[in-house]
Amino acid sequence: MVEITVAELEAAEKIFGERLDLAKRYVEHLATSGTERGLIGPREIPRLWSRHVLNCAVIESAIAMDSHVADVGSGAGLPGLCLAIARPDLELTLIEPLERRVIWLQEVVDDLGLDNVTIMRTRAELAVGMVDADVVTARAVSALTNLAGLTIPLLNGHGEVVAIKGRSAAEEIEKATKVIRKLGGVATSVVVCGQELLEEPTTVVRIIVNKPGKTA
Predict the structure, then answer these.
(1) Does 78 appear as a known binding residue?
(2) Is residue 11 a part of any domain in this protein?
(3) Cellular component GO terms, alphabetically (predicted)?
(4) Who is most buried in 7, 71, 81, 143, counting CB within 10 A?
């Protein structure tokens, strides 16, 4: 079983509530089959809670109730599965092109009984028109200049992108401003999530999209 510190457990209890056991089972999947199949590096096992699961789960505070969330490049389910566990009110579509990752994600979803998750094996740019999301999430996919083009079109003209980024978030926004505006982004900001829960809070780039000529 993956060890969890007192501070991590307290944060996990606040985020996942009565679904904490599901989160623990997900972490065990990451530490075992996830590592064996190359979705998570073995050196990450001691920090699965702090660096990965909690780091992703805290962005739920930036997502409105009952939203349809598309998670681009889901990989090991970070942040998609974290959100599905923490927020059963959300409808999650996990978009992942690699078959071995899709197979693993489906196994985990089935084992945890997550009925609010759909998995699509495709590239984000090919999912446009197949997904009508309110929110698009991403973590460690690409720089914002490229990520904007992979995420914003999935919103069908209206909604938000919530992308987990690091200390370079503001710099990435500056470089991607023209691309974001061209795609319909009307406001971009850096938001810090989990300050009251995590030793190292999560930094996200939030893009509000309202493309002229589109109706919600």
Answers:
(1) yes
(2) yes
(3) cytosol
(4) 71
Q: Which residue has the tokens 């460690």?
A: 140
DSSP assignment letter at 128:
B
pLDDT digits (tens, 9 = 90+) for 95-122: 999 999 999 999 999 999 999 999 999 9
Q: What is the CATH number of the domain that holds 53?
A: 3.40.50.150
How many structural domains compose the chain? 1
In a domain, 1, yes or no: no
172 labeled binding residue: no
73 known ligand binder: yes
- What DSSP assignment string belongs to 130-165? TB--SEEEEESS--HHHHHHHHGGGGTTEEEEEEEE
Token code pair at residue 169: 């978030």
Confirm if 88 and 19 have CB atoms less than 8 A apart.
yes
Which residue in the block uniquely carries the two structure tokens 């590592």?
35
pLDDT tens across 129-161, in order? 999 899 999 997 889 999 999 999 999 889 999
The residue segments making up the domain with residue 75 are 6-210
215 within domain boundaries: no
Q: Is 37 a domain residue?
A: yes
